[in-house]
Amino acid sequence: MLETILIIYSVYTFMRIYISVMQIGYINDEKRKDPVLMPASKYKIAADYAVAKEKLSLIEIFVDYLMFVWWVLIGFSWMTTVIQVEDNILQSVLFLFGFVIVNYLVGLPFELYQKFKIDETFGFNQMTPKMFMMDILKSSLIFFVLGGALFALLAWIITLSTSWWLWGFVLMFTVAILVNVLYPTIIAPLFNKFNLLEEGELKEEITKLMEQAGLKSDGIFVMDASKRDSRLNAYFGGLGKSKRVVLFDTLLEKLNTRELLAVLGHELGHFSHGDIWKNIGLMGVLLFVSFYLFGHLPDILFAQMGVIPSAGVEIATLMLLLPLISFIFTPFMSYVSRHNEYAADVFGSQMGGKENLVSALLKLITENKSFPKSHPLVIFFYYTHPPVLERLKELGYDASNIIIEEEHPVETREDRKRSESIFAFIDKEDKLL
Predict the structure, then answer these.
(1) Catalytic residue annotation
(2) Cβ–Cβ under 8 Å, residues 181 and 238
(3) Confidence of residue 401 (pLDDT cuts 50, 70, 90)
(4) What does pLDDT average to over the chain?
(5) Which tens digits make up the pLDDT trace of 260-306?
(6) Number of CB atoms found within 10 A of residue 248's CB
(7) pTM for the full predicted model
(8) Distance between CA 347 and CA 350 in Å, rounded?
């Protein structure tokens, strides 16, 4: 059984590596061609940024594979000898703490390199080492308190019932819904400041937009995202009374009012179409299948790993193998998400205007250095948003008809002709004067 698991995980790892290598080759080829949607200089920078991230991901995939092999052949057995307490639930919680901490420490260098080397080089990272450490401390506190309680509940359920996988699924699905409710108002404010959007034209326009969409929210907030990262974003989060619209301060700096309204119209489209509930439903299916499969793993697998199937070991095995199930589900979930994004674009264009949404999309990819092309395999597996070229096409805009220059963030060829005729007329008038 263990050999079968190792073979399956090896195939999964090979597929991830293959997709990543194909993406690197694809982007390196595309960056040598005529730029699209960006000025030539920024087009190349976006390509280099995408390749740099992908190369780091390749190394991380390989390390993840080595860690998986280590855990199933040695790690679980070693951890059980290190964590020895009489109480079964406490033993399980400590075992899981050890499992998570080891994995986090192995992954930490990649996070540091991404943030303080790659993101720093390409002008994104605004975070200081002190701020990074504070985030780790806050995250660790949340993990040890809430994660510890969750681990204890799962361990208790496993020791109590042979149908633990079903009740474990119910618990985790309930927690997932609670996180969606609590994150905007309790968890997110631990890491960022959220200030109500100041009174003015923008707030009035957003309020009108929300009323048209039938949304009653906790408020419109501006998040101080710029203290960590310079990228632009906005989101609609929460459930029930915790629903709120969140604008990154970086977004307010770069987009005009019309563009902001188009972006928020897109986000309101997700609300209007019930996409949050759809995503929760899909996640519920994934959780149910995962708990069912891992709840029926044969005891011989644990014997081959040199451990007994205690609660802690079973939960850690579930966490270790979950990426396999997620990878199988990913193409379908990505497809559904892309479909939802197209529908939200239509809604956003109706609420805020197609031209404004197109202009906003172009500014977003330029400011966020998002290379506009990807290998079809990457799109198939990982893209939760359609490629921007396809989004523009669906909105009725031909990318070949759009020119981006440093001085003119968004310009079509027809605009260029009109501009040239205007400047030609002015030149003649100047000469006449």
Answers:
(1) 267
(2) yes
(3) low
(4) 85
(5) 888 888 888 888 888 888 888 888 999 999 899 888 888 888 888 88
(6) 21
(7) 0.81
(8) 5
Crossing angle between the packed helical segments 311-352 and 2-30, to the nearest 10 degrees: 30
The torsion of the CA quartet 229, 230, 231, 234, rounded to 10 degrees, works out to: 80
Q: How far is CA 395 from CA 56, 264, 304, 398, in A?
A: 34, 16, 55, 9
Residue type, 353: G
Give yes or no for residue 380 having a pLDDT over 80. yes
Coil vs helix vs strand at 82: helix
Task: Count CB neighbours of 401 within 10 A.
Answer: 12
Check residues 417 and 101 and name the one with the higher pLDDT: 101
Residue-wise pLDDT tens digits, 77-97: 998 888 888 888 999 999 999
Task: Determine whether 432 is exposed, middle or buried from the number of CB atoms within 10 Å of its CB (0-12, 13-18, 19+).
Answer: exposed
Q: What are the helix and strand counts (H, E) for the chain?
A: 18, 6
Q: Which of 328, 236, 248 is nearest to 277 (CA)?
A: 236
What are 247-255's contacts with CB under 8 Å, separation 24+?
Answer: 247/197, 247/220, 247/221, 247/222, 247/223, 248/222, 248/223, 249/222, 249/223, 249/224, 249/225, 250/225, 250/226, 250/367, 252/222, 253/226, 254/363, 254/367, 255/360, 255/363
- What are the CA-CA distances from residue 431 to residues 346, 380, 419, 424 (Å)? 47, 57, 18, 11
Which three-class secondary structure state does DSSP give residue 319?
helix
- How crowded is the C-beta side of 342, counted as CA atoms within 13 Å? 15
Distance CA 168, CA 332 (A): 24
- Helix ranges (DSSP H) in 37-87: 40-70, 76-82
Kindly tell me if the per-residue pLDDT of 3 is higher than 80.
yes
Q: What is the pLDDT of residue 400?
A: 61
At 97, list the tokens.
């703490």
CA distance 270 to 339: 11
Tell me what pLDDT residue 74 has.
93
